[in-house]
Amino acid sequence: MSDKINKKSTQSHTRVLALYPTSRGFGYVVFEGATNPLDWGNMSIKNSDNKLALKKVKSFIFYYQPDVLVSENPIEKGSRRSQRINSLLLSIKRLEKVNIIVKTYSRYEIINVFEQFGAKTKYEISRAIIRFLPVFEYHKPPKRKPWMSEDSRMAIFDAVALAMTYFYLEE
Question: What residues contact 4, with CB distance under 8 A and at least 6 apart?
Answer without folding.
Answer: 168
